Amino acid sequence: MRNITEHRQAGMRRSEVQMLGATSMALTDELVSLSLRPELDPGPEPHRTPLSEMEVEMFARRLLQESDGAPLWVFAYGSLIWKPDFDAVEWQRGAARGWHRSFCLKMTRLRGSRAQPGLMMALDRGGRCNGILFRLADDDRLGQIRRLIRREVGTIEDAATVRWIPVKTAQGYVRALVFWAGLKGERVSRRLPLETVARVLARACGHMGSCAEYLYLTVKHLEERGIRDRNLWRLQELVAAELLSIHGLNEVTQSR
Fold it and tell me: Is the C-alpha dihedral spanning 72, 182, 156, 108 positive or negative?
């Protein structure tokens, strides 16, 4: 049974979606299906060192200690919204000030390949990011943190992308754990024009799916929770246009 907070937020979600307008997404299931293709997993990226089980354990225990016994919140802004890998007992919307969503991380596996690299979404400095806060169950908290690390981090080099940030909610600020924030290194491409990002997302695909699929699912589930990210909304329109052009469907649409 959903708690009172979730019932209240569900009502707010419906009203806010109505306020955002009933405009349908340009990026559809049918268009996303055109971006998908079979790809083999090329294996770990060169020059990156996978976390050992001992390192995962040490990392998880450090984060558990840093939570200091307080409720453990995770701030989700992308795939954790629609594919969480933890047991949440509560959720609420929140705003991370000083951060924004950005497809700025080049990747050659998962949703990209070495032949056609993709772009992963992360949190970059500046602006404001509206997302979802999930509170993890208190029992087996350590085990859930381990699962998050294995899914979201994976390598020693990426451990620095995990941090605690303040997130504003309707009840005040909470301290939350966030993944893929404050990126540095040669894989990071900042300030790319949306048109450039759209061309990449419409073409990149890996063994876990396509970048267009990732964008579609993120925008769709944000909308369902009453959140519209202006840049992502524009980006899904651009990706839809790219896919129509790539597959020669503009002419078909115009001829109808």
Answer: positive
Q: What is the spatial distance between Cα 10 and Cα 226, in angstroms, rounded to a whole number? A: 9
Between CA 204 and CA 120 the distance in angstroms is 11
Residues 78/171, Cβ–Cβ less than 8 Å: no
Closest CA to 32 of 193, 220, 196: 220
Q: 182 — alpha (psi -120 to 50), left (phi > 0) or beta?
A: left
Judged by DSSP in three states, 222 sits in: helix
Cβ-Cβ contacts under 8 Å for 14 (sequence gap 6 or more): 226
Say how far apart CA 144 and CA 163 lie, in whole Å. 16
Q: How many CA atoms lie within 13 A of 216 on its CB side?
A: 23
For the stretch 150-205, pLDDT in tens is: 999 989 999 999 999 999 999 999 999 999 998 888 889 999 999 999 999 999 99
- Cβ count within 10 A of residue 154: 17
Pairing of strands 73-76, 172-178: parallel
- Predicted TM-score of the model (pTM): 0.88
